[in-house]
Structure formats: structure tokens, C-alpha cells
Amino acid sequence: xxxxxxxxxxxxxxxxxxxxxxxxxxxxxxxxxxxxxxxxxxxxxxxxxxxxxxxxxxxxxxxxxxxxxxxxxxxxxxxxxxxxxxxxxxxxxxxxxxxxxxxxxxxxxxxxxxxxxxxxxxxxxxxxxxxxxxxxxxxxxxxxxxxxxxxxxxxxxxxxxxxxxxxxxxxxxxxxxxxxxxxxxxxxxxxxxxxxxxxxxxxxxxx
Amino acid sequence: xxxxxxxxxxxxxxxxxxxxxxxxxxxxxxxxxxxxxxxxxxxxxxxxxxxxxxxxxxxxxxxxxxxxxxxxxxxxxxxxxxxxxxxxxxxxxxxxxxxxxxxxxxxxxxxxxxxxxxxxxxxxxxxxxxxxxxxxxxxxxxxxxxxxxxxxxxxxxxxxxxxxxxxxxxxxxxxxxxxxxxxxxxxxxxxxxxxxxxxxxxxxxxxxxxxxxxxxxxxxxxxxxxxxxxxxxxxxxxxxxxxxxxxxxxxxxxxxxxxxxxxxxxxxxxxxxxxxxxxxxxxxxxxxxxxxxxxxxxxxxxxxxxxxxxxxxxxxxxxxxxxxxxxxxxxxxxxxxxxxxxxxxxxxxxxxxxxxxxxxxxxxxxxxxxxxxxxxxxxxxxxxxxxxxxxxxxxxxxxxxxxxxxxxxxxxxxxxxxxxxxxxxxxxxxxxxxxxxxxxxxxxxxxxxxxxxxxxxxxxxxxxxxxxxxxxxxxxxxxxxxxxxxxxxxxxxxxxxxxxxxxxxxxxxxxxxxxxxxxxxxxxxxxxxxxxxxxxxxxxxxxxxxxxxxxxxxxxxxxxxxxxxxxxxxxxxxxxxxxxxxxxxxxxxxxxxxxxxxxxxxxxxxxxxxxxxxxxxxxxxxxxxxxxxxxxxxxxxxxxxxxxxxxxxxxxxxxxxxxxxxxxxxxxxxxxxxxxxxxxxxxxxxxxxxxxxxxxxxxxxxxxxxxxxxxxxxxxxxxxxxxxxxxxxxxxxxxxxxxx
Lengths: 207, 740
Fold this sequence. Notes:
Chain B: GO terms for molecular function: iron ion binding; oxidoreductase activity. Chain B: It comes from Uabimicrobium amorphum. Chain B: Residues 20-125 form the Aldehyde oxidase/xanthine dehydrogenase a/b hammerhead domain. Chain B: This is Aldehyde oxidase. Chain A: One of its GO terms (molecular function) is oxidoreductase activity. The structure holds two protein chains of two kinds. Chain A is α+β, with helices and mostly antiparallel strands. Among the domains of chain A are: 54-128, Ubiquitin-like (UB roll) (Roll), CATH 3.10.20.30; 138-202, [2Fe-2S]-binding domain (DNA polymerase, domain 1, Orthogonal Bundle), CATH 1.10.150. Chain A has helices at 2-24, 26-32, 75-82, 116-119, 138-145, 155-168, 174-180, 191-202; strands at residues 54-60, 63-69, 101-104, 107-110, 123-125. Chain B is α+β, with helices and mostly antiparallel strands. Chain B folds into three domains: 15-21 and 457-575, Aldehyde oxidase/xanthine dehydrogenase, molybdopterin binding domain (Aldehyde Oxidoreductase, domain 4), CATH 3.30.365; 31-124 and 180-271, Aldehyde Oxidoreductase, domain 4 (2-Layer Sandwich); 278-447 and 589-739, Aldehyde oxidase/xanthine dehydrogenase, molybdopterin binding domain (Aldehyde Oxidoreductase, domain 4). In chain B, strands 3-5-1-12-9-10-11 form a seven-stranded mixed β-sheet. A six-stranded mixed β-sheet of chain B has the order 7-15-14-13-8-28. The radius of gyration of chain B is 26 Å and the shape is globular. Chain B starts with 14 loop residues before the first helix and ends with a helix. At the A-B interface, helix 1, helix 5, helix 6, helix 7 and helix 8 of A face helix 1 and helix 16 of B.
């Protein structure tokens, strides 16, 4: 019984740590990013900075959003709940499964473990930004062609990890692909099809 | 029938929506005025509720609070037995028993509120495993803790033991396994006194429908269940969603607002069902040539605190327990026992992976004691056309399991590898031991015995306004490709384009009950009904003289539109009819348990680190006969996925139990195979045994044979006889320590 409580307390404290860290990092954000303005909201409460939200500007898929966010808001929450971009999925909420992967300033991150305010002013790419209207991104097309998805729930994160790989390494080897998606858990076991899809896009068929 | 679509790799119906992030899963939906729910659970494994305390740090007036007093109908989750309540009344039987429900517009306030409720309980001593249950350390279910018991007998095993050349006995254990579908469970409900509507992630809309009628004391037409895009199930969303749907609807009815009830990953893992842990005792008698003379199996599953599906999981496990082998004398005693853990439930394979693991491992042991090659030993005992299996079912089709075996041996280079690895392992300076192992097995598709007759599934088809055909079925798309294969089957039956077939959303107000999406039955059983239903549409158009026997897709559309213009609508429903010659004796567990079996031989190749005992599957060959393959890439994906889960079952997936509940309920410490762990899985479909497009189930098959093949390979690499899964490196280390 006691053990169970300790276990859940530990989980809570990990989470609280992240959210606490969010408040602490506000200062750093102001210093580096012009898009965050916390002045208006800090007067009411001397203990909690930005209790009523901090005005930030976000660049998601090339579109600008002015948004007031409480510092504890994760990037995943911002995308899904405030911007209604529900393609990004939250599964473990602990950075263990990769389903929430998005690209921030050219780096793939777990959006459940990233604070929204830390992403303000940065270039955020999500699954919704890949296709150009009805025209699929080559990676999305390859995923469909190779049936690199089954239930589809890990797919947005999986696609974003693959895109990030190809952005930095247009012709990866198979071990590089395996490694790049090793943080994206797929319970349907579509990994072999994902490998084929990425190799196909990179022009290295059948490797 | 000319087949233009079946057998081809058409694009998955919902593929584009899924790769663009447009698919709407339950947590992607928000309703106006919607509030959020949470479940307050027991935190003792067994006891009697004395009082519920609400701490005064919370303004409870802001919350919707549902207790058993708010249940308008019966407080039971209707399934096989009606023993599980939606909310515990007085009695607590496991640690995750739901007791109260809360809802609030601000979901960030829910967790603190949940922690501010204290359930005062008179604790009772609890039992947590099969041994304690069988020993009746406490009686917690009926008068002997037995949820269900079956006895399958063939011939007379007792006549054999005295005269047998060799008798080999051993015990085998398998652990629980979490389904770990990537999408957490969740539901949204709208309800009032007159009607209830629930949207959510699920496999079986009509199971929920059936469970909510008595809960709300409402007739069938007043309960509506709608499946949203579902991020995997693997059995885990077969029965538990009924509880979540009931809870969400109870909150919605009380709040008079839409309620979203989402589980986070930790709650989903700790509170919902898993694969039943098992203990199996094997006793086999053979003659000097390796012929199986008698098989005696005692198979026990840990069912957890309530009956749920344990009786049927046990049944499938028992029927598959003696594998695809011929033997005159068989006795299989199977029991599911109760413990004070959350109820175990459906998971791909449904009892068969447990019993097949024990049997295949034991065959390796028997072969070793006979000094026989395990492959030859199996081969000479394979069921043939005309043989009787364990339940006395005569195998009517021309079984060529030896051909399946030959293909597996060839593709895996089994014998060459075995020789090569023996040389490798004997060298002093190697860092890893290598091994190769094999399992042969079969899996019956569809509901067991008379199950399909009782289900009496119905499928419909109708014309759409633009002259296309829409399939009406409650069978859900959960990633396995239901929508795609139904469209292929319907398009070929009608001779029209794949794109001209649409699939209705599984919504109980729009689709008939085609049965649950389980038991590898969707393609085989429901697919056949889809074929009949759409043929009914075509026949009506023919009879109305709007079509001639030869037509193009365009002519079909024109005829359909004309029909709708003249008659308003065209809907056809068809009902399941059992195939001829299928007889099942439920009382004695004799007869045709399944109308079709898929047959398979799997070969695994592993390496074992000599110093860390880490095990890695390096290559995997999966050969199976599944009848007609409707969509080769989808089918391959099913096999690969099942094999990956089987590798997890064998080597990684360890449910740590503490005081009757899962202690490692996070994706950080419950480990499943990643892209780096999954080997090359080489999938081959053998030529169908029967002509004429007979289809068999494939979803569960790969889960059955993977773990025994992998563990057999570990044994080949290390020489250690392994009797349990999961086999963790530390377990293997202990096996080495035992010897020194």
C-alpha cells in the first residue's frame, strides 16, 4: 500500500518538476525571445508568475498565433487544446512513446515534455503542416503506399521523426532509420513498413 | 467471380486521414459545454466499504458527483455473468474497483479532487495468484474460487501410462501482458433520463450497447453507441470500454452536460484488463519412435476479481492446448480461478498463446529426452486430413502442415543454422551464443463452438444517393484493415470499383449487430456476410431489370440511381448461417470447435550475450496457411505486428505485481519492442489448402507461436530448459547460477 503511494507520488513529482521548471524558465525566455511579454500578467499575484497566462506568439506550420498561455502549458496542450491542431497525439505524457513528436527549430521534440512558452517565437512544425492542400508530402505518400500505419495513433509522431531525419540526412542508411524512430513506439508493429517508406523517399529502395 | 480487388494491395481506406493527422480519435473531439470526468477507485485489494469522506479543501458544489445512488437501472456490467458492478456498492474485490465518479469543467482540478476523497474500508485478506487461489487461502469466488472449468477427453490416457516407452512431465508459466494499444481508452457521453449516446474508442459497439441498456433501464433504441477512430485494441478494447462508457454516461446524465472521460496512460495500464497469467502442467507419453501416445494437460488461468471473459478465454486456451498434433488419448483439464487483481481480459490469441507456449516448449523437452530432432518429432505427429483433433473434430481439409514446415525450414535455413551455431557456440572466445528454434501450431478462427450460431451476426448494405454501395456492419476498424478488406470483398462481389464501396461508421443507430471485432472473425465470418449482403443489392437491381448480367461500374451507378428514384431506398440485410457439417457439443466439449483453422510454422533466430544474458531476436521466419489472402500488405502487417508482440511476450514484457495490481504501469518501465528490437520479420503465405477462396482468420495466429519459437531458440543457444515467459536476462542468469 505504502509502496503504491510512493510510486504515484514519484510520478507526480516528475510532472510537477517540469511544470515548476516552466515558471523558472520564463526569465530565460524573455531574454532570448521577443515574442513573449509577461509584464501585463505578473502584477496580480506576487507568488505565481503568469498565473493568468503569458502573451506569446507562436509560429506553427508557418502560421502566426498570438496566444495567452499559463506557463505550465505544454506544447502538446497548446497545439491540441488552444490551437485545435489535434493531429499531434498525447499517449504517455512522459516523453516515453514519441507519439507527440513535433519539430521545433529543426529538432524533433516530445511536445508533452516541452513547455509552450519555451517554443514561443520558434519555428514549430506539426503533422498538419506537411501536406500542401490535398497534395501529400512525399513521406506521407510513402507511408500510405507502404501501409506504414495500422491504427494510426503513433503515425503523426512517427512521420515527424522521419521527416526530421530526412531534413538532416536525405539518404539515411537502414540502421539510421531504425535509430531515428526508436523513440516512437508502435504497438501494431509497423516498423518494417516505416523503414521501407523512408528508404523509398530517400531513393534507396530495397536497402 | 472474377477477382479484381481481392488479393491486391489497394491503398488503405483511411490511410490519408491517418497520415495527415485528420483522423478524429476520441480525445480529439470537443463538444460545446463539455465537462471532464474522472474515476475514484479503491486502493485496497479486498474489503468492505464503511464510509466515504470528502475533504473540505475542495468546493464540492462545483463538481458533479456520481455514486451508486445515481444509477437508474441495474448496477452490473452485463457480459457472460453479471457479477461485476459499474460502481462498487459495499464489496471491494480489487485495488482498481471504481467507487465514485467526478466531473468538472476544469480538468486540471480533477486529480486533486480525486485525492481528496478517502474511502474508509474494512480490509479483508486478499489472494493474488493462481497458487493462493487453488489452495483456497481465501475463498473469494463461489465456494472454490473456480470461475470456470472444462474437461476435454479423447480416448483414455490412464490406459497408456503403464505401457509407455517414456513419460515426460513439466510445469510451465506465462506472465500477464498489457495490450498497450497506443491510444488510451476514452469516451464522451450525452445522456438524460430518456436517452444515452456515447462516442469512443472501442472494438465492440454492441457490447457497450448491451451493457448500457440495463444500467439505464432503457430500451435498445434509446441507447446509441458510436465508434470514433480507434488507436489499436488487440482485445484490450473488447470488454472494458463498456465500463468507461457507462461511467461517462452516468456523469453526463447527472450533469446534464456532455462528459469526456479519458484515461491517462498510468490509469489505463493499472486499471484495465491484461492477458491472463497461466500455469500449465504437462505430461506426455511417447513410444520409442516418438509417436504421441497420451497427452495430459492441466491448464490454469488467473482470471482476476470478476468473471468477465475468462470462461471463453479459457475455452480457447483449452481447445488449442494440444496443438495441431494427432494423438489417440488426450485429457485437458482447464480452470480459470479468481484472485483479487483487476479482471484479466481479451488479448490477441485469447488463451491460446498461453497453452501453446506450454505445449510447444514441452514437445522440445520430450524430443530432447528421446534424443530426437524436435522437427522430425513434430512432423511425424502432425494432424492430417481425416485425423481427429483434441475435441474429436475431423480435419476435413487437405492439411499440408508438412509443406508449411518445409517452407519455414528452407526460408530460415534451420538445419544449416543449427549446425553453424553449434560450431560457433563451442568456440571459447565468442561473446554471444546463437540459437534457432521452431514452433508449429494452428489457430481456430471465429467464435468457439456454437458461438457464431448464438451471435447470429447481421450485415447490411444499402445504396447511397450517388449510386454507390455502403456496407453496414458493427465491425470496427482498429488498424487491422476492416474498412479496406470489406471494400475489396464488396467490390469484387459486385464487379465494381473499389472506390465505389463505402463503409458506414459503426453507430448502433445505423448499423446492425455484425458481432464483436474479435476472434479473427472479421474477414472470415463478417467478410462472407458482406459478400452476401452486397450480392442481395445486385440481385435486386437485376430483378428490377435495371441491370443486365454484364455491366460496368458506371452502369451500376446509373441503375442504382434509377432504383432510388423509383423506390426510395434499397437496403439488404443478411444473417449468419452455420456451414453444413459443423456440430458442437457444449456439454462434453466435443465436436467442431471452429469451422476453419489457420496453420503455421515459425522459426526464430536469437543471440544471447554471454556476459549480460541479454537476448536479441536476429531473424524471424513466419510461414502460414490462412486460405485466401485478401490484401497481402495488410496481412503481412498483421503477422509482423503479432510477431513483434510475441517477441515482447517472450523477452521484454514483464508486468510487475504489487499487492494485486500492476506496479510498472508506465511506458517507461513496461518495455515493448522498439524499432531497434524488432528483427527482420520474414512473412510467407503458403498456398491455400483448399481452392475456392476460403478465408481464415489471421489476426491472432502470429501471437500463438512466436514466444515458443523464440524461447526454443534461446534454449538452443544456451542449453538451458526454459519453462516460463517473460524470460528476462536476470532469469536466464539465475538458470546459469543454478547449475554452478
